[in-house]
Amino acid sequence: MDRTERILAAAAELFVRFGVSKTTVDEIARAAGISKGAIYLEFRGKDALVDALIQHELRAYLLASSNRIEADEEGGRLSRIYRHCTAELLRRPFLRALYTRDFDVLGGQLRRYGPQRATPRLALSESFVERLRAAGLIRPDVDVQTVSHLMAVISAGMVTIGSLAGETSPVLLGQTLDLVGDMMAATVETPPGQGDVDAGKRAFADLADQLVAGITGGTGGHSDQGQ
Q: What SUPFAM superfamilies does UniProt report for this protein, alphabetically (predicted)?
């Protein structure tokens, strides 16, 4: 792990534990095992570090999700895409805080980014769902807009379950993801063996590429006061 990665990993852990506003650059430096000055060689200040962490976490999430989907024989199906993306997001506490707009973690960063900026998108666009339907993976009688909205609602519920029902065991969480995926497959997907699964994988890969391109230009460095 290089110096930048050590800084980002330390920052992510401290931000989740104590919140962005209560975490100082000194504390990040100690957790990363480097000097405070070394952090300023990589980032102009804490705001710039937060920007870089958001970009890093989103890119890593999309890459990991894409790899999981590609490795899954049935990964191009909507239910499998949902399962892999949600499971990967739940592994990333800082990204989860972004998605749920957790004020305890992000604090004033929510005001910096506004209501939508830098929030990870689990909601799959209508055009993406339409590609799956064109590939024969979604039933032709199902409304694409409804499916896209359904994915957003279900995904938001899974990500916020911890704040509503307390901590959930990994086993129970996995079983819940499987059950939701099964229900999704039964209601909106074509039967197993139908459709072009590889086309579904390509559709997600294209979507991930678009999101990564947006991330690169979506958050900019900001000068700030080091704390």
A: Homeodomain-like (SSF46689), Tetracyclin repressor-like, C-terminal domain (SSF48498)
